[in-house]
Amino acid sequence: MTFFLRFVVTSLALWICDLIFSSFEIFGGDDALGRILAIAGVGLIFTLVSSIVKPIVSFLSIPLLILTLGLFYLIINAAMLWLTEWLTSQNWLGDWGLEITGGFWWYLWIALILAILQALIGWVVPGDKK
Q1: Which of 42, 62, 65, 120 lies 20 to 30 A from 53 at CA?
Q2: pLDDT tens profile 36-51
Q3: Closest by alpha carbon to 8, among 127, 90, 110, 93?
Q4: Is 89 helix (H, G, I), strand (E, B) or coil?
Q5: Residue 75: other Cβ atoms inside 10 A
């Protein structure tokens, strides 16, 4: 999947998570265009974090992945979600970002639902299916 297509799928999945969960909020933008740009900005940050940081963390945690039969990927996805929230809460790029309240278990739950949504949306979206 190309970077742009992954960005679109991730942004759509984040928007659906924003609609589903009360403890997950993408904030920013007073009008419809500002809201779309805030969702796209958070989607871009999450896609960049998942493309750059996640492979390094996954490689370093190979023993834990083997020990847990791959379930540690859920912890890695939750950590990438936390890193995205931290990066967007710094207000380096404007007054928009991601906020998750409720602690570790909410990160884990949202990371699971986000991964399922990304898989489902990626399966429906046309593109290179290698």
Answers
A1: 120
A2: 998 999 999 999 999 9
A3: 127
A4: helix
A5: 18
Residues 113/80, Cβ–Cβ less than 8 Å = no
For residue 83 the two structure tokens come to: 């890193």
Structure tokens at 103: 């602690």
Cβ within 8 Å of residue 89, ≥6 positions away:
97, 98, 99
Q: Are 121 and 13 in contact (CB under 8 A)?
A: yes
**In 10 A of CB 109, how many CB atoms?**
18
CA angle 48, 50, 53 (to 5 degrees): 90
Residue 27 to residue 8: CA distance in whole angstroms: 18
Q: Is the pLDDT of residue 83 over 80?
A: yes
Residue with structure tokens 């809460």?
89
Indicate the residue type of 129: K
What is the rounded distance in angstroms from the CA atom of residue 49 to the CA atom of residue 85? 11
R_g of the chain computed on alpha carbons = 15
Decide if 38 contacts 28 (C-beta within 8 A). Answer: yes
